[in-house]
Amino acid sequence: MPKQVVPPFPHPSGARPPAIDAKFVPAHVAIVMDGNGRWAKQRGLPRTAGHAKGEESLMDVLAGAIEIGVKHVSAYAFSTENWRRSPDEVRWLMQFNREVIHRRRDELDAMGVKIIWSGRNPRMWRTVAKELVDAERQSADNTVLTLQFCMNYGGRAELVDAAKRIAQAAKEGRLNPDKLTEEKLRHFLYAPQIPDVDLFIRSSGEQRTSNFMLWQAAYAELVFLDRLWPDFDRRDLWRAIEQYAQRDRRYGGALPNQTS
Ligand code: IPE
Ligand code: IPE
Ligand code: MG
């Protein structure tokens, strides 16, 4: 018997999602959760206080994503470039993300969230990888929302990893290089079962992608919001979705009923 799914917890203000036709709700939202350090600095706190506050933002955004009908969320938690930060901050972030997954796993599982870890194995802390793999296992049958948790993730690293596996397959005669297509390449990415990114959101006012979802976001609509991640909640997600719903997605084509 399928398990009983717990509905997402409401926003404390009682806010409800805007009425948007389901066909204008993005299936896959990618989020660069940025601005933790600046949030902390504004308050005279250590950078880590901003990261800590961001946990609540993510939980609220996931609840809001479920409420409005988003099916996949990719959250950028630690990039392949974030190793450049101080050893103290890196250590803190590794431990923190492990604890977040551990602490939130049951709650997310109850809401029907399927957790997937995307990122590189080498260098990743074994204990964090184990926590993520356990969470993947526990939540594997969930269908309400997929959370692609990107830890030690880089878009270029993902493409290099794909290229290595493709080259290996070609060497072993399992793949004909002449027959490689975009669709086939996609299957070598970390999570090929997740569709392309429809809406790419970055908090904190920075306007760059910082190596997130390079392949998958080729035709994503980009929305940059000034709010710092620790202040971000589901209402910001909904605002971004309202902007998304107004966009014309042309994919290189032309609008119908327009002559040249
Ligand atoms: C995003 O916040 C979190 C991670 C990159 C892990 P930052 O730590 O980048 O915060 P800012 O950009 O310095 O404000
Ligand atoms: C991107 O943010 C990475 C994550 C949010 C995990 P950064 O703060 O690391 O990106 P840059 O350095 O501003 O490009
Ligand atoms: Mg940043």
TrEMBL record:
Binding site for substrate: 35-39, 47, 51, 79-81, 83, 85, 202, 208-210
Note accompanying the cofactor annotation: Binds 2 magnesium ions per subunit.
Keywords annotated in UniProt: Magnesium, Metal-binding, Transferase
InterPro entries: UPP_synth-like (IPR001441), UPP_synth-like_CS (IPR018520), UPP_synth-like_sf (IPR036424)
Binding site for Mg(2+): D34, E221
The protein's required cofactors: Mg(2+)
GO biological process: polyprenol biosynthetic process
Highest taxon listed in the record's lineage: Bacteria
Active-site residue list: D34, N82 (proton acceptor)
Quaternary structure and partners: Homodimer.
Protein family (similarity comment): Belongs to the UPP synthase family.
Function statement: Catalyzes the condensation of isopentenyl diphosphate (IPP) with allylic pyrophosphates generating different type of terpenoids.
Protein name: Isoprenyl transferase
Source species of the chain: Propionicimonas paludicola
